């Protein structure tokens, strides 16, 4: 296995992002359309938060309802804004942070994605899924 490989080698560079004025219905649509679980919330190129699919599930009680699940989700989602639901104190790494350091950090924390920021600008995101794919390529 290679040592010192920067996270820029495995991070997702084509980002799906949200703005603070977007709504949670839009967020859910993006999660499902792109098959992702984390979306950075940005103001311009600057990250101001991160929203996870788990964050949406926490505020939704629609899992207990079959018939009108989408309708109930919409009602619940309209009760909250993205800034109310997203994580504000986002931990970030740079594109030169090593894959090993990212893996070590994520293995010790309770979240599964790290935005990649260079010079204050969001340039990517690295997730536990990216790390697993990288490890699988090594075998």
UniProtKB/TrEMBL annotation:
Pfam families: CBS. The keyword Isomerase does not apply. Keywords: CBS domain. Residues 11-67, 86-139 form the CBS domain. InterPro entries: CBS_dom, CBS_dom_sf, Diverse_CBS-Domain. The keyword Signal does not apply. This is CBS domain-containing protein. The lineage of its organism: Bacteria, Pseudomonadati, Bacteroidota, Flavobacteriia, Flavobacteriales.
């Amino acid at each position: 296995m290679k040592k010192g490989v920067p996270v820029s080698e495995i991070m997702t560079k084509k980002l799906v992002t949200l703005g603070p004025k977007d709504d949670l219905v839009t967020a859910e649509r993006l999660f499902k359309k792109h098959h992702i679980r984390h979306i950075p919330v940005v103001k311009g190129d600057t990250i101001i938060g991160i929203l996870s699919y788990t964050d949406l599930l926490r505020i939704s009680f629609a899992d207990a309802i079959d018939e009108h699940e989408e309708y109930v989700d919409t009602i619940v989602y309209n009760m909250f804004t993205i800034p109310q639901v997203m994580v504000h104190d986002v931990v970030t790494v740079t594109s030169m942070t090593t894959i090993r350091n990212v893996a070590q950090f994520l293995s010790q924390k309770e979240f599964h994605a790290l935005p990649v920021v260079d010079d204050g600008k969001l340039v990517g995101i690295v997730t536990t899924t990216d790390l697993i794919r990288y490890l699988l390529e090594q075998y």
